[in-house]
Amino acid sequence: MTIPHITKIEALRQLYAPASERALKKELPSLDPHASRFIALSPFVVVASSDAHGHMDASPRGGEPGFVKVLNAQTILIPDAPGNNRLDTLENIVSTGRLGLLFMVPGFDETLRINGQAVLSTAPADLALCVDARRTPKLVIRVTVDSVYLHCAKALMRSQLWDASLHPERSSLPHMGEMLRDQIQAFKGETVEIESQAEMVQRYQQSL
């Protein structure tokens, strides 16, 4: 069965009205005070990257509000924190030197998008700026801003992401260990021991 699909930009554009003047003008080449303040309030950013072959990845990064540091209108620092050591994002940066970022602030339906160039910095001055109560990071993602713009609230309004009354019960999904066990069994044909949710949370707490 052939799936009808769009292969040309012209055909795509025929489905939609032109972008509004405001939507086009809101893209900026550098951070302004509003964007800098948004970053200072944000405890969470999604980092999008790809390798040299175009294989995509999106990775969440979190910390205390303002854990991402604004150096100036063109430069931000994202400290690396302990993870699963796959290093997908970091390897992609080495391969392509490009990132897309989506900052969120709890309770705000607007988000902040930044696209730019990135390097993995081990400069002592960069590391010192990103020291927190737990550690000095091994490295810092140093981003040179190419474009920045506030993204409208529609997606988060539709999802009602911050409305706690609509959040599903945790019991609506198995805990992480159970899901990993089932996935590895189904796709790898291997049997693995699982941690309890309490054991997993305790392990996470040791490396936050």
Task: Describe the structure in your own words.
There is one protein chain. The protein has 208 residues and is of the alpha+beta class. It has two domains: 26-159, Roll (Pnp Oxidase, Chain A); 167-206, no CATH class. Helix content is 31%, strand content 25%. It has helices at 9-14, 21-25, 33-41, 88-96, 124-129, 154-159, 176-188, 197-206, and strands at residues 44-50, 56-62, 69-72, 75-79, 98-104, 111-121, 140-151. Strands 2-1-5-6-7-4-3 form a seven-stranded antiparallel β-sheet. Strand 3 (69-72) and strand 4 form a beta hairpin. The model has no long low-confidence stretch (mean pLDDT 96).
Characteristic terms for this protein:
7-stranded antiparallel β-sheet; alpha+beta; 7 strands; Pnp Oxidase, Chain A; 208 residues
